[in-house]
Design a protein that fits this description.
This protein is an alpha+beta fold. The protein has 9 helices and 7 strands, in the order ααββαααβββββαααα.
Length: 266
């Protein structure tokens, strides 16, 4: 399948990891990085960016690089040095963020059930949507590898986020775990929010921005007037309107306003 993207070279993030290992002057860490993040096995089916997240308790974004600005409309340097929660507030729909954070905690708990020397054999993936600055939802796959110290405590997480919108697939919230043993045998586990006992987001739940727009519609304002009032672009308002129709199953703006009033969303 032909795609219009120019992904960054995997060698760039490999160089970054090697520089981290040299900075730490830790031969064991350098060896772990080679096992975890071998650039020869990384490939991309679309635009991507990668993040290096420091372990608990800070959960700080230590590094961001790649096609983030093209995928989200935000520059990477906007988030470097900030916490994982900060990036969630901007890039993750508010109704999905709690579930994604719970997925992450579940993966950490899963690692605690197996010996630390096997942690590099476990790969986590998350399927979800991120928010472009325009309000458009972008389906992505996030692949995580977690580096833990000898005590099994997470020190770094490497996240590789790929845009899969060109695949035209519905991106429900899902978490998967791939376990590869020393002989190359693979075990695959699949988890939905319901399987983990997490409360899935109610269908049609609107974000704060979407509620602001629908309030404007309820007042009889046009998309252009709403855009001026909110200080956003006209096409951004229309993108939000289309997303809200898709979320709620409404056919037009009149039905959308009626739905919001019935659900006490405005």
């Amino acid at each position: 399948m032909e795609t219009n993207h120019i992904p960054v070279a995997p060698q760039r993030w490999w160089d970054y990891w090697q520089s981290r290992a040299e900075l730490a002057k830790d031969e064991e860490l350098a060896g772990v990085l080679k096992r975890y993040f071998n650039p020869d096995i990384i490939f991309s089916t679309g635009q991507y960016f990668f993040a290096v997240i420091e372990g608990a308790p800070t959960l700080k974004i230590a590094h961001l690089q790649g096609n983030m600005e093209q995928m989200t409309g935000h520059k990477p340097e906007q988030f470097v040095g900030k916490s994982l929660l900060d990036i969630h507030q901007v890039l993750i729909p508010s109704e999905d963020s709690p579930i994604l954070l719970s997925f992450s905690q579940f993966c950490i708990n899963f690692l605690s059930t197996i010996p630390s020397e096997r942690h590099n054999q476990v790969k986590f993936s998350f399927y979800f949507n991120i928010l472009h600055k325009t309000g458009k939802l972008v389906p992505v796959i996030q692949q995580d590898s977690i580096y833990t110290n000898a005590d099994g405590i997470p020190e770094y997480c490497f996240s590789f986020i790929t845009d899969v919108s060109h695949l035209k697939a519905k991106n429900d919230l899902v978490c998967t775990i791939l376990i590869i043993d020393e002989k190359g045998n693979q075990q695959f586990k699949y988890f939905s929010p319901n399987q983990l006992g997490l409360q899935a987001a109610e269908k049609g739940l609107l974000t704060v921005r979407e509620r602001q727009i629908i309030s404007g519609l309820a007042e009889g304002l046009s998309s252009k007037q709403i855009a001026v009032n909110l200080g956003i672009a006209f096409h951004t308002v229309n993108t939000h309107r289309q997303n809200m129709l898709a979320k709620t199953g409404c056919k037009n703006s009149a039905e959308l306003v009626k739905y919001a009033l019935e659900q006490a969303l405005i």
